[in-house]
Write a structure and sequence with these properties.
Length: 243
């Protein structure tokens, strides 16, 4: 873990310092870019944090994010112990976890391509539905077929989520205060700590993860309902379905 942090700092910080820059004036004109703080149309069509937290979409999105991380952190912490409980060797269990992590390299690109072609709510619902499906499959492990389905569905959806949340925040509240609203929503990640604590407590109390896994199915089902109730809160139009 130490070397991951050191290696990341050695690569990311110099790259950010050398490669990330503001667009040049001619690039701004060519691409029609504007300075957000100076554009009255963007300002008027965007919600600040104070207005955003009074909308239903803010709270449904926060719940969706919290549920996603409860599931994600529970699996990160407990999947390998669960597989070893079910008879896998330590190296086999770790290998399956590595495969899940490795899928994140492609899933962000693939979901990014999807998000460019459908609305942000549709992409969020798809990803949440995939998480729900993976948690249902989890109930049938450690059978080999369901394990492969779990690795594919969970490995894709759990890492692709990072692509979606900035897009859905802009869809709901506009672009002007996206960073600030997104930052406040990140506070819901604290709930992720409940995932491994509850899963481990259920395992210690009953000798099985079944109850905890069933609870995750219910949680992901409610998260999908929350995703369906998210809508665009800025400049609502008559008959707008939230798409």
């Amino acid at each position: 873990v130490l070397w991951v942090g050191i290696g990341g700092a050695c690569v990311i910080l110099p790259f950010a310092a050398a490669a990330i820059r503001d667009p040049r004036p001619e690039e701004e004109r060519a691409e029609g870019r504007v300075e957000l703080g100076r554009d009255s149309s963007i300002e008027s069509s965007s919600m600040d944090v104070g207005r955003a937290i009074k909308t239903r979409s803010f709270w449904f999105l926060g719940f969706n994010l919290a549920a996603t991380f409860i599931y994600f952190v529970a699996m990160t912490d407990q999947l390998v112990p669960f597989l070893t409980d079910e008879g896998f060797s330590g190296s086999e269990a770790a290998g399956h976890f590595r495969t899940i992590v490795g899928m994140g390299l492609g899933s962000k690109i693939l979901l990014g391509l999807l998000a460019d072609r459908v609305s942000a709510p549709t992409a969020l619902r798809f990803n949440t539905a995939l998480l729900l499906a993976s948690s249902v499959v989890l109930l049938f492990l450690p059978a080999r077929g369901p394990l492969a389905l779990f690795i594919i569905s969970y490995g894709f959806a759990s890492t692709a989520r990072d692509v979606l949340y900035p897009l859905i925040v802009v869809h709901c509240f506009g672009s002007r205060y996206m960073a600030e609203i997104y930052g406040v929503l990140m506070l819901s990640l604290v709930a992720g700590a409940l995932g491994p604590i509850v899963a481990a407590a259920a395992r210690d109390a009953t000798g099985s993860y079944s109850g905890a896994f069933a609870g995750l199915v219910v949680l992901n089902g409610l998260s999908l309902v929350a995703a369906w109730l998210i809508r665009a809160e800025c400049e609502p139009r008559p008959g707008d379905s939230g798409e």
